[in-house]
Structure formats: C-alpha cells, structure tokens
Amino acid sequence: MRRRTGSESGVATVEFALLLGVLLGLVALAWPLGSTFASKLSLDRAMNDVVRYATASPNAPAYDPDGTATTRRPTCTEVTHELYRSLGIANDTTAQSQYTIAPFTCPNNLAPGQTFSITVTKTSNLGPLGDLLSMAGITHSSTVAVTAAASGREE
Fold first, then answer.
1. What are the DSSP calls for 1-55, one per residue?
2. CA-CA distance, 93 to 19, in Å (whole number)?
3. 1 domain-assigned
C-alpha cells in the first residue's frame, strides 16, 4: 500500500480554481453573443406583429363625413406604439432609445394592395468580447447593429 503524501492534497483545488477561471472567462465572452441573438429573435417576432397590425383590415369600417365606408389603417404613431408594445418596452423610453426605426410610409397613406415595409435597428453592446474584437482589429467598435425588416400587403 502506498501512502498519500501531504504535497498532493491541494492539487484538485488548484486545478478546479484554474478551470473555473477559464470557464467564467468563456461565459463572459459568450454571454453577449447569446444576448444579441435573443435580441434578433425578439426583433423579428415584433416586426411580424407590427406588419400584421399595419395590414389587417378592421372588423368595423370607419366612415367619412359624407357617409362612405373607408378602411381605417393605423397611423405612423400607432405603428410605432405597436412595435414598442410587441417588444415589451411600451413605457420605457430608455429602452426605446436603443432602437432606430427607418422612415416608412404610414399604412393609412397606402392604397389597398400596396406593400407596407418597416425596418428597425437595435444597437447591442458586445461587452468584453466586443472590446477584444476591437483591440484585435476585427471590428471598429464594441457594439453591433441588429437589424430586422418586414413587409406585408393587405389583399
């Protein structure tokens, strides 16, 4: 039988500490990528909701002052509010400032059968990963722009 000497008693603890540092570093670098990917998915889902909202025919038509029935389409402000509601940031102006909505033709200005299109961009910070990529010369900044576009036509 061989006896364990006192010099090997802390080896497992040292190995665990070294490995834990490496794993935490990998998580710190990978977390922003997952967050950016989740932002892209959320933005795509919200864009689908917005296009559906902008192109859906209302159940009850609106009437002009002369009594003729018209199809009421949402205004640009209503479309913007629907986008923020779909993203879950309807009352958060700080979160809304991270999004840039490209100019679009309001649905109420489109003739029936025309296409409604909207494009939204969100700036995401890549954190330590972005700093590393920037220092390595791969990117010019530690942020990335996530863009989603959608279009639809009411038939």
1. --PPPGGGTTHHHHHHHHHHHHHHHHHHHHHHHHHHHHHHHHHHHHHHHHHHHHH
2. 42
3. no
- The crossing angle, in degrees rounded to 10, of helices 127-135 and 11-55 is 100
Residue 115 lies in a domain: yes
- For residue 17, tell me if it sits in a domain: no
Read off the tokens for 135. Answer: 């220092």
Residue pair 9/111 in contact (Cβ under 8 Å)? The answer is no
CA distance 143 to 138: 12
Residue with the two structure tokens 């700093």: 131
Q: Can you read off the two tokens belonging to residue 65?
A: 């002052």
Give the number of domains in the chain. Answer: 1
pTM of the predicted structure, to 2 decimals: 0.73
Taking only the tens place, the pLDDT of each residue in 32-64 is 888 899 999 999 999 999 999 888 766 556 666
CA 64-65-66 angle, 5° bins: 90
